[in-house]
Each structure stands twice: as C-alpha cells, then as structure tokens.
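Running co-folding for iron/sulfur cluster.
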Amino acid sequence: MNQGREKKTFLSKTRFFSGIRCPRLLWAKCNSPELLPPLDAASKFQMEEGKAVGKLAQRLFPGGIEVESGKDPERHHRESVEALQSGRPVFEAGFVFEQLYSVADIIVPCRGQYDLYEVKCVSNIRDEHLIDVSFQKYLYERAGIPVRKVFLVYLDNQYVRNGRLEPEKLFKLLDVTEAAAGLREVVEGWIRKLVPIMHLSEMPEVAIGEHCLGDPACPFKQGCWSFLPERDSVFVFSRGQKKALSLIEQGIYHVRDVPENFQLTTNQFIQKQCHCNCIPYIDKSSIRSFLKRLAEPIYYLDFETFNPAIPVYDNTRPFQQVPFQYSLQIIGSGERVQRGFIAQGDTDPRREILVRLKRLLGREGSIVAYNASFEKRTVRQALEAYPEFEADFSGFEARVIDLYEPFRKFHYYHPDQQGSGSMKYVLPALTGQSYQGMEIASGSQASREYYLTCLNPEVDETEKKRVLAALETYCHLDTRGMVDIVEVLRKQVG
Ligand code: SF4
C-alpha cells in the first residue's frame, strides 16, 4: 500500500513576510489557506503589474533563460541548478535549503559566483526590500550558491517615456550587497522564530495591533477585530490609532466608554461628544467664512486618473497620475449645468482634457474640488507635458477651493462619518447618498477598470461601454455630491 510522503511545508519569502507581520497569518497560510479570503481585485491588479515590470526588467539581461516556477520547490531547485550550468542569466530560478524556499527574479553567473537582481515595482526602496534580499542571499548561500553581489532593480520615477520603452533608462540599479549581508543575523533570528510556528497544531493567539493595519490591511482583520463594535469604536478618533490600541488593551472598545480623564485632543473631544450624543458638531462661523469664499459661477471639478508603473504615453513617468476623465458641475445665476468627458484610451487624454477645460472653466469663479491638491497636481503635470496651455491655466490654482477643508479642520463633524473625512463617508453622512452598490465605487477601482478595459484592445465594445457608463455614473456622483454637501452646509449655517 502506498503510504504517501507527507508534504513538506516550506517557508517561502511570502510566508516569511507574513510571519514577520503576524504568527497567525503565517500559520494560516501554511496550514489552513482556505481560511484566507480570495485576493481582492486591487491586490490581483498589483500582482499583475508587478509581473509585467519583472518581465520588462528581464530585457536588461539579453540571452537569459527562464525556469518554470510554481511547481514542487525541490524540483524547481533541481531545474534551477541545472539552468545555472548554462552560464547565462537565469530568470525565476527557485532554491531550497532545508525548509526555506525562494525564487530569484534574476540571477547571473559571474566567475563561479552569482549576482542577484531583485526587481521591485516601486520607485522608492524600503527597509523590507533589504530584508527580502537578505533572506534570499542567506538561503542561496546555504544552498551552495555563492552570492557575489546583490542589486535591487526598481523604477526611476524621473524617467520620461519618449517613444519605445528603454528598460536601461526606466530601471535603476542599487547595489545593496553590504546591507543584505548586514541583515543576515536579523533574518536568521526571524527564521528560527518562524519555522516552529508553521508546525504548531493550532493557530496561535495574537493580540490585535498596528501589525493588522497598513496597506493592504491583514486579510484576517474582519475576523480578529470582530469583537469591536461596528459603529463608534475607539478607532474613530482622528489621528488616534495608538490611543485606540491602548484603550483596547484596557478593555475599552466603544467611544462612549472612554473615561472622562482620558487625554484627547480638541478634535477627538469633539468626536467623543458627537458619537456619545448622536449629533453633529458645527462651527457655524468657520463654515460661513468658508462658504463666503465661493464665488459664482462655481465649478465643481473631479478628475479620475490612472498611474501605471510602466508609462503608457509619451511624456509620462512611472506612476505618474494621468487624467482620463473629468466631471464638472457649473452653478451660476440659479442654474446648474453638468459636463463630463471620458477618453477612449487610444491616445494621451491630457491634451483633450486641457482643451475642453480651458473652454469650460473660463477665467472667473471658484473651482471646488474635494482634496484639491490632487486636482491641482493633475493639472500642473498635464501642463508640464503641454506647456502651450500654461497661459490659459495661469489663474487655475488661485481659484481652487478645497471642500475637504471644513472636514479636515473639524469645522463640521457628523458621527456617521465614523472618523473619516473622505467623500465616501462625508457624502452619506450629510446627504444620505451613498456609493454602496455602485458598479464602480472608488477612485482606485475607476482607475483599475479604465486601465484594464479601455487600454486593452482585446476587450470588446460591449464591455467597454459598460465600464464607460459605470465610470460616468461614479464621477458625476462625486461632483453632484460636492454640490449637495455645500447645499447642506449652507442650510445648516442659515
Ligand atoms: S488581523 Fe491582526 S492579529 Fe489577526 S491575523 Fe491579521 S495581523 Fe494577526
């Protein structure tokens, strides 16, 4: 009878980082992956973009050969060692040492040793990237693959595309050999801690903390945090993450239970009063001053943008926000007019947007946006690419008024905002309108859907039309919502 060999559990690089974040997460990934929710669309998109950047970086090493990964780690190791014998650069080689397993983006043989190139889809190097290469260097050397040099390969956000992509200019190389070697003890320490966790018979208990937050939040957050009330939890406090965690340690979960003598900032105190008494806070005098600044005609403006890692159009840089859509509500002389535009995706939309906005915005009146620094930056960057419009937009920034301001400064706070000043919370709290149930319900989703649909020639027209319609509905809600928020504020201050 075939007893079957027990499947070996490996500490891969992904698991290693999960374990550094939280032992519960590592244990679940190794023992009960079915407990993890499926990857959301944003994470999938990020992964696909990372893969595309990795492929492009391979062009820096002509003649390289790729080892197929995603198999049994030990087989991957054998095939990778074989590939290294070729003396050519090897892509996606995977190596095993005891219970450790990692895949090298690019490894290049060099006089009996090897240079390691780790590709990152970022324009700024962070500490975790150094730990990443240190983990790899340690593992490969223990596996008998001497590493001579270690490089991080990342995107140069000063590179401006001009025609064909030039990988040798798009990517920057940073020699981190010393840093990777210097972190060896730290990495060894983590490995010693994490390997036994993989083999625990049950998921370990871990208190919630800052490690659950961040971007992306831990996939188990919903479960581990379910003891907190859905509304009015201590996490509503503005800039109060540390305070919330210390309250939780004391067994205080709800705002109403926060003791009188617990130190709160002025804004946090306002929040406490609002949540305990279920009433909004209104600083009428500051709101009046804000509203007085609005000069007719008032233009409520919102852009949707996308920011691909690999520049799509000429005159754009990696991760540069490129507008593809705007919505505009124009209020003047008691009339309200709606205008909008969505680019079809075949050419750089910025010129067309500048042409249209130049005509629509004229020279007078306030331009209202929510979190307006984004709209200002978007126009500024578009003008860098099309300087012939500079004179037309010379007064643009001075006319812009940020509707986020009264909420950021706590001139208005409604308990339904649940601690957030974002439009996604402010609009429902003040007007009852909601983004829930919309086909496209956030800026990041708008950006992703546009990129995946309108910039992909393989997507059929019906699908394209569906996405364009959903984008139109979403962007118009943002600008109509701003008009309605201002209306509510006006009514409240009389
Ligand atoms: S939510 Fe927090 S405690 Fe729970 S698994 Fe994630 S990181 Fe760990």
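Result summary
The mean pLDDT is 95.
The domain at 13-198 is CATH 3.90.320.10 (Lambda Exonuclease; Chain A).
Job closed.
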